[in-house]
Amino acid sequence: MLLTVRDVSKTFPGDPPVDVLRRVSLDLSAGESLALTGESGSGKSTLLHILGGLETADSGTVSLDGDELTGLQDAELAGVRRRAVGVIFQQFNLIPSLTIGGNLSFHARLAEREDHAWTGHLAEALGLGEHVDRYPEQLSGGQQQRVAIGRALAGRPSLVLADEPTGNLDEDTGDRVMELMVGLTREAGAGLLMVTHSPARAAALDRQIRLSHGVIDGALV
Amino acid sequence: MHRTAFFALLSHWRRQPLQLLALLLGLAAATALWTGVQAINQEARASYDAAASALGQGTEQRLVSDGPIPRETFVALRRAGWLVSPVVEGELEGVTLLGIDPFTLPPTAASPNLQGPRLEQFVGGGLMFANADTAARLPGYNVETAANVPGGQVTADVTTAWDLLGADGFSYLVLLSPQPRGLPPLSDVAPVLSTVTEESAGDIANLTRSFHLNLTAFGLLSFAVGLFIVHAAIGLAFEQRRAMFRTLRALGLPARSLVALLAGETVLFALIAGGLGIALGYGVASALLPGVAGTLRGLYGASVPGSLTLDPAWVLSGLAITFAGAGAAATSSLWKVARLPILAPARPRAWAMASVRGRVAQAGFGALLVMVSLGIAVHGEGLIAGFAMLGSLLFGAALMLPLALDLALRSVAPLAKGVMADWVLADTRQQLPGMSLALMALLLALAANIGVGTMVSSFRATFTGWIDQRLASEIYVTAQTPAQAVALRAFLDAEADATLPLRTAEARLAGAPADILGVVEHRTYQEGWPLIESVPDAWARMNAGEGAFINEQLWRRTGLAMGDRLELRPGWALPVVGVYTDYGNPEGQAMVAQGALLARVEGISPLRFSARVAPERVDMLRAKLEDFGIPPGNILDQASVKRFSLDVFDRTFLVTGALNVLTLGVAAFAILVSLTTLAGMRLPQLAPVWAMGLTRARLARLELLRAVLFAALTFLFALPLGLTVAWMLLNVVNVQAFGWKLPMLAFPLEWLRLLALAVLAAFLAAALPAWRLGRVAPSRLLKVFADER
Amino acid sequence: MSVRCLFLAGILLCLAGVSHGQSFAGLGEDADGFAIPQPGDQFDFPTDHGPHPDYRIEWWYLTANLVGADGKDYGIQWTLFRSAREPRSDESWQSPQTWMGHAALTTPGAHFAAERFARGGTGQAGAQAKPFAAWIDDWEMAGSDTLDVITVTARSEDFAYRLDMVASGPLVFHGEDGHSVKSAEGQASRYYSQPFYEVAGEIEMPDGRIQVTGTAWLDREYSSQPLGRTQSGWDWFAFTFPDGHRMMAFELRDSENADYQSGSWIAPDGTVTQIADGTFDAQPLAFTMIGDRRVPTAWSFRYPERGVDVELTAINPQAWNDLAFAYWEGPFRFTGSHAGTGYLEMTGYE
Description:
The structure holds 3 protein chains of 3 kinds.
Chain A: E1 3-12, E2 18-28, E3 33-38, H1 44-51, E4 59-64, E5 67-68, H2 74-84, E6 85-88, H3 100-110, H4 116-125, H5 141-154, E7 159-163, H6 171-188, E8 191-195, H7 199-203, E9 207-212, E10 215-220
Parallel strand pairs in A: 3-8, 3-9, 6-7, 7-8
Antiparallel strand pairs in A: 1-2, 1-4, 4-5, 9-10
Chain B: H1 2-15, H2 17-52, E1 60-64, H3 71-79, E2 84-92, E3 95-100, H4 117-124, E4 128-130, H5 132-136, E5 143-145, E6 153-157, H6 158-165, E7 172-175, H7 186-189, E8 194-198, H8 200-240, H9 242-250, H10 255-300, H11 312-338, H12 356-379, H13 382-412, H14 419-470, E9 475-478, H15 482-495, E10 498-509, E11 512-519, H16 523-528, E12 531-534, H17 538-543, E13 548-551, H18 552-558, E14 565-569, E15 572-580, E16 588-593, H19 594-600, E17 608-612, H20 618-628, E18 635-637, H21 638-652, H22 654-691, H23 696-737, H24 748-774, H25 778-786
Parallel strand pairs in B: 3-6, 4-5, 11-16, 13-15
Antiparallel strand pairs in B: 1-7, 1-8, 2-3, 2-7, 9-17, 9-18, 10-11, 10-17, 12-15, 13-16, 14-15
Helix pairs in contact in B: 1-10, 2-8, 2-10, 2-11, 2-22, 8-11, 8-13, 8-14, 8-22, 10-11, 10-21, 12-13, 13-14, 13-23, 14-21, 14-22, 14-23, 14-24, 22-24, 22-25, 23-24
Chain C: H1 3-15, E1 24-26, E2 29-30, E3 57-68, E4 73-84, E5 97-106, E6 111-119, E7 125-128, E8 132-136, E9 139-143, E10 149-155, E11 160-167, E12 172-173, E13 179-181, E14 188-205, E15 208-223, E16 231-240, E17 246-254, E18 260-266, E19 272-275, E20 281-290, E21 293-303, E22 308-314, E23 320-321, E24 327-336, E25 340-346
Antiparallel strand pairs in C: 1-2, 3-4, 3-15, 4-5, 5-6, 7-8, 8-9, 9-10, 10-11, 11-14, 12-14, 13-14, 14-15, 16-17, 16-25, 17-18, 18-19, 20-21, 21-22, 22-24, 23-24, 24-25
C-alpha cells in the first residue's frame, strides 16, 4: 500500500476551535488515483497538506511508502516532501525567477533525482518543448499548470498531490490539463490524490472520497 | 466623504506599523543628518561673525607699524581728525588678549556690554570679558562671562592689557569708517604707519568655507540616502494600497481628491518626521559639535564654542527640506495615482517587477551623470565644481548599480553548481528591483566611506611622514628674554651638535597674512624640506639670500612660477626658487635666508632655537637646559611636538568619521526596511520551494546569504567608485579646500574592514526578516496556495 | 559700547529721572568726594574757564543763530561735556575723567549731528584756561583767556564748520553770582554765559560751503548734582532780542512735583535780573513726531514782567540729535510782542 491513513484528526486553534478532520482513514495504492471532494471548509485541503507532509496531524498515523510521517521533525518532513511527494497547486506557484526548464527540473534536482531523459519526455508530453527557455510570466495559465505537473512528476515521486489543479483554468484547458496529469501520473507509476469540488473532474479518477465536516462520508465507487 | 476616505487610507499604516516606522524614521534620519550638519555650520558661522565683528564689520582697515605704535601717535591722529581706535593684542595663558579703547571703538555685536557701573570697572577696574569656555581657561583673572565675545579671546581695556602684558603702545590702530571730510593726509600725521586691510575674521570664514561646504555635501549625501528609504516606503505603500485606491475610486472618490488626500497624508508624515528629525538633528549636532570645534581649531585656528544654540533658521530649513524630501519621494507615486485607471488590475508584485527596460534606461541616465562628472573633472574650476563632480559621479554610479548587479548575477549564473545555487542566484536577481533603492543607498554610503577614508588615511600617512621629516631637530627651546637668548645660544653651541635659531616675521604675502621664516644654512633644512618644485641650486640661492621658497598653499593660491618675484616687504622682493609642502597650515609661508630676513625686518623675536643632538642625549640636554634656567614649559622635545601635531590631525577628521558611520547606519536601515517589506511579498515565491521540500530554517539561512551577497556585490562596485571619489577629493577638492595636493595611498585592510562592516550591516538588517521567515507558521505558507486572487 | 552710560550716569541719566543715589555727605562735598556748588561761591577767571575735575560734570556749550549768504537761517551747536568717575584728574590713561563732544548743524531742511568720546588724561580731549582751549579730537574751541575772542571748529563725515566770534558784551552770571538753583530742593550748578558773541564764519555741508554771520551764546556750567530725582528733563530757551537784550529761561519738568523755572533777563550791558520760579509761561503750540517721540517744536512763551508774549517756531522741527544720548537742539525764530532768534534745547523726550 502506497499510502495508509488511520484516524487522522486535526483541530485548528481558535475560539471556538475548529475540528477540521475527525478520525479520517483511507488507503491508496501505487498507480491508483483518488479524488477528494467536499464542500468548502470540509477539510479536504488540510487532509491533502497532511498527506504531503506540509502540515502535521494532531493524532492518527500517516504512512507513505512505508515511512511513518507522524511525529517527524521539520527537516525530516522536508525530506519526505523532496523525495516522495509532488505537489500541484491551483495557482501553479511556479518560481518566477527560473525558466520553464529550470522549473521543470527544479523539484527533481532538489530530490537529487534528475533524469534528463524523463524530464525531456515530460516537457514534450506536456507540449512545453519550445518554452523551456521562457519565464513563467510569459506563459498562459494552462501552460503554467502543465509546467507544474511536469515539475511534480520530474522527480518521480511516489505520490502526486493536486489541489484544485484546474480551478484557475477554463473548461477546455482544464480538460487537457486533467488528461495530461492523470495520464502522466499513471505513466510514472505514482499514486495521485486530487482535491476538487467538481464532480466531473472527480469522476475521471479511479476512486472518489467525499469529506463532510472533517469526516469521510463513505467510499463512493 | 474625504474624512472617511482619509481614515481608510490611514488604516493601511495601522496594519503595517513597520512600514510606517520605516517611512517616519527614514524621513527623520534624513532630516536629522541634514539638520545636524546645518546646525553645526550655523553655529560655526555665527562664531566667525562674532569674531568678524569683534573690532569692525568684516573687512577692517588697520594702521600698523614695524613695532608697537606709541600712545602719542594715536593722540596725534585723533587730534588731526582721523578716527582711529587703538588695540593691544597679546597672549594671556594661551588666550588672545585684546586691549581696546571703549571710547573710540564703535560698538559691535561682539562688544562686551558695558552698561552702568561695568564701564567703570572695565576702564578703571581691570574687568575683562570672555565667553564661558575661554573664561574657564583664565581662573584667577577678573573675567566676566559674555557670550558674544568670540571664543579664545578675552577683551580688556587697553590699560588692563598693558598691565597684564607688560607692554605699552598699540599693536595696531583700527581705521574707522567713514572718516570726516577734509582730513590732512595720513602720511603727514603719522608717516611711519602703513594701512593694511585686515580680514582676520574674514580669512577664517574664507578658509573654513571649504570645510563647511564639505560638511554640507556630507549632509546632503546622508539626506539623499535617507530619501531612498522614504521613497521605498511610500512606493511600497502605494502598491499595497492599489486595491484600496481602486475601491475608493469605484465608490466615487474623484482622482483629484484621492491625490489631495495622499498629499495630505505625506504632509502629515513630513510634519511628524520633520519634528522628530530636527530633535534628532539637534542631538547629532550637539554630539558632533565638540569634534567640529576641535577640527576648526586644529585646522584653521578658528574658535567655535563646543555647545549648541537652538536657531530658528536651521529648524526651519530642516522642516523645509523634510517637506521637499517627502514631496520628492511621493511625487512619482502621486503621479501614478492620478493616472490610475479605476479598473486597473491589482498586481502587488508589479512594483517589484520593474522591467529590464526601465533598468537600462536608469543606467543610461546614470552613465550620463558619470559623463557629466568627467566633464566637470576636465573643465570645472573651484570647490563647488569639485563637489558637483563628486555628486554626479556618485549618483550616476548609484543609478547604474541595479543593471550592474543584474549583469553580475547573470554572469556568475553559469558558474553556479547545483539547483540551490541556481535558484538562489535567480531569486536574487528577482529581488533586485525591490532591493535596488536600498542597495543604491548602501553603494553611496560605502563609496563615500571608501573615498573619504582613503583621503583621510592618505592624508594621515603623508602627514606623518612629512612631520617626521620636518621635525628633525631633537629639541626646541624658547628663551625668556633677549639677554637669556644670547646666553642660551652660547650654551647650546657648546652642548648641542648644532644650534638652529628660529626666526619668524609676520608679513602679508600676496595680500594675505603669512609668515616669513628665516633659516640658517644647515642640512636639517635640506633634509626636512623636500621641494616639490624648484630651480637648480635652489638651496644655495635661498641660503645666499637671493631667492625665497614658498609653501605649497601660497604657490597654488598665487600661481607664482619659479623665478617670479614675490614681494616680502615693501621694497623687498625675491624670486621664488622653490616650493615646499606645508600640510596643516592654513596660511601662506615663505622661507628666506635668516641673515637676509634680519637685515630687512626689525623687531623679530630672538628667543626661539632648535637644537640637533644625538637622540640618547635629549633627556640630558633637557635637564641641563632646565638647570640653565629655562622653564620646562619652554623646552619641547621632538616627540611631544609630533604627538601634539598628530593629535590635532586626528581630531581634525573626527567628524568625517562620525558622519561616515552615520551614513552607513542609514544605509543599513534602508536594507532592513527593504528586506522587511519584501519579506511579506516574497512568501508566494518561497512557499512552493518550501512545499517541494526545503525547511523554513534553510530558507531563512538563504535569505541571510542573499543579503550578504547583495552587500558584498555592492561593495565590489563601491570600491572602484570610492577610490575614484578619493582621487577626486585628493586631487581636486583638497587642492581647492586646503591648498595642497596629496599622494593617494591604498589601504586594503581598511577596505576589508569596511567590507566586513557592510556584510555585517546587511546580515543584521536581514536577520530580523530571516528570523521571522524561519519561524513562519506553515499555515501562512499554505495560505499562499489557497489565496484567491 | 556704552560710553554714553558713563555720561548718562553723570548727567544724562539724571535728566531721564534716574537717581544715582548720591547724598550730601558734608558741606560742599557729596558722598563720593565731589565738590557741591555752594551759595556765595565766587568765580575766579580765567581759571574757571578751564576744567573743574573735582565736580562730577561740566560743559562748554555753544549755540549760534546764523544767517547764510543765501539768506537762509542756520544753527550751530558745539558742546564739550566732561564727566568724572572720581573727583581727581591725572594725566594717565586711567584717569577717571571722560569727555564727550557733540557738534551739530541745522538748516531749514536738514540737521546733522556728530559725537566724539575720549578718555581723560590722554590729550585726545580736554580743556585749559590759559591759553583758553577746549577740544576733543580736532574739534576745538580756543581763543583769548577772557573768552572775548574765540574760534570754534568741528567736522564730521557730512558737515564741518569754522566760526570766529567776538564778544560785544561781558560775561553774565546766572542765579546768585553764578549759583544757579535747579530745583526747589536746592540742587544747583555753577553757571555763567557769554551771550553776546558776534559771529562770522563758514559752514560746509554735503552740497557745498557757505559764509555765515550771526550771534552765538556760550554756556559754561559745572555741577555735581544738577537735577532732582524726579526731574525728567528740561526745556531751555535762549532769546536774542534785536535791541541787544538777551533772555535765558529754563523749565525743569518734574514727574512728581511742580515744574521748576528759572532764568536770566540780560540787559545789553550785561546786567542780569533773575527770572523767578513761576514767572513765565511756556506752552507747546505744536508737536512734531520724530520717530515715535512727540516733541514740541512750536511754543507760546509769555514773560509778563518784561512784556514778552511771543510765539516761537523751530527753524527745523527735525533738529533731533540722534546720538548715543539723544535730545532736541535747534535754532528758532520768534514773533509777537518781540521778534528775533534763539536756541531751544529739550531733553527727556526720549
